[in-house]
Amino acid sequence: MTAPTIQVNPERFLADLHALRAIGASGVGTGVVRPAYTPAEIEARDWFAARIGDAGLQPRFDPMGNLFGLAEGRSLLVGSHTDTQPEGGWLDGALGAVAGLEIARAAREAGGPAVSCVSFQDEEGRFGVTTGSAAWSGLLTQAEADALTDHAGITLGDARAAMGDRLGGPVDPARFTGFLEMHIEQGPVLDGAGQALGVVEAIVGIRDMAVTFHGQQNHAGTTPMHLRRDAFQALAAFNAALNERFANVVTPATVWTIGHVALHPDASSIVPGRARFSMQWRDRDPDRLKRMEAIIRETAAEIAETRGLNVEFGPMLGIEPVAMDEGLRAALRDAAEATAPGQWREMPSGALHDASNVGSLMPAAMLFVPSIGGISHAFEEDTAEDDIVTGLQALARAAAAAAP
Question: How far apart are CA 113 and CA 110, in angstroms?
Fold first, then answer.
């Protein structure tokens, strides 16, 4: 028996992907600047909504600004996101969102099966951790989401107001039978091995919180070193101590990052009185994530006490590790072997994705394509177009097998 297929149009798909890239183009290579709720991102959502309508699907924005392209009746949901990091690439999220559009469009043209598409809002975490799909999945209430702030102190509620009357009512998850997401790997494994596809086994868990050391702002020329309560020196000591204390807890796959630092008053001739920084860590083991949190809190408290400072911890954000649905994984494995025989592997995802949240509502699974040099979250991010098309074709095979 021949496996079902959806006859996608690679040329149309690539044309849409490049058209989306032009919205918020950075002017540097294929880089894109399209953070959540910014004018460029809203323009991208309007463009995507128009393409959904042209495909004969129903465009629907929910209260968060998540954009769905709805087929009639119950359907398989396929998609990702269209927002980017402050300095992002053209494929992170956009690849999966446009692939979802193309598969849903091709399925409708063929008279079935039923496939809907989606572009979730704020996957890149301007305001938290995959906030659009977290709110849709019920992991955040709308009030909780609206209270989140970005690094500039803008609340999500104020930011999403820029979407105006586009925002509509909730989209019922019960109308979908499952979720498929295609994404660039954002790592070096597939590219280094010369393989075309990766079927995701599980997505790591993530924890993210802000930590603030409160010291004493003072004159940089007249304050002796031994009398300083320097918040930045506390941060530096914390970072060094943390790496040592994690050594017997973490695995080679565990990662942690201090990615955003804000010093006050941020002046050359003033001893910093406050250092606020982001602390993020990821692992597949929830118990290890908890042990790392304890080490972070204990180390920061010890550093603060030793140096005569105070320490403050912000709210904890995060998502638990999520195993992908075995049935959808099987469909992706079969599709990968049919599309790129012997040139695929099963692998974990060290990056967070909307599938983590959606997996709490319905069966969910993911497919990776290579990232050249393993680079992502940078203007240099890229993937060969042949690999992009291979991913689309494999995802379409899996969607055809999984759709109702």
Answer: 8
Residue found under tokens 């000591």: 237
358/343 Cα distance (integer angstroms):
28
Q: What is the number of other CB atoms lying within 10 angstroms of the CB of residue 79? A: 31
Name 240's Cβ contacts closer than 8 Å, sequence gap at least 6. none
The answer to whether the CB of 245 falls within 8 A of the CB of 301 is: no
- Separation between Cα atoms, residue 17 and residue 223, nearest integer Å: 56
Closest CA to 202 of 403, 351, 370, 387: 351
Closest-CA residue to 82 (of 124, 139, 117): 124
Predicted model pTM: 0.85
Which residue from 221, 219, 209, 185 is spatially nearest to 373, judged by alpha carbons?
185
- How do residues 248-300 score in pLDDT, each as one tens digit? 999 998 999 999 999 999 999 999 999 999 999 999 999 999 999 999 999 99
Convert the chain into a string of H (helix), E (strand) and C (coil): CCCCCCCCCHHHHHHHHHHHHCCCECCCCCCECCCCCCHHHHHHHHHHHHHHHHCCCEEEECCCCCEEEECCCCEEEEEEECCCCCCECCCCCHHHHHHHHHHHHHHHHCCCCCEEEEEECCCCCCCCCCHHHHHHCCCCCHHHHHCCECCCCCEHHHHHHHHHHHCCCCCCHHHEEEEEEEEECCCCHHHHHCCCEEEEEEECEEEEEEEEEECCCEECCCCCHHHCCCHHHHHHHHHHHHHHHHCCCCCCCCEEECCCEEEECCCCCEECCEEEEEEEEEECCHHHHHHHHHHHHHHHHHHHHHHCCEEEECCCEEECCEECCHHHHHHHHHHHHHHCCCCEEEEEECCCCHHHHHCCCCCEEEEEECCHHHCCCCCCCCCCHHHHHHHHHHHHHHHHHHCC
Burial letters 188-205, b for 16+ CB under 10 A, else e? ebbbeeebbbbbbbbbbb
- How far apart CA 50 and CA 242 sit, in angstroms, is 49
pLDDT tens sequence across 329-353: 999 999 999 999 999 999 999 888 9
Q: Measured between alpha carbons, how far is 85 from 87 in angstroms, rounded to an integer?
A: 5
Under a CB-based contact definition with an 8 Å cutoff, are residues 355 and 364 in contact? Answer: yes
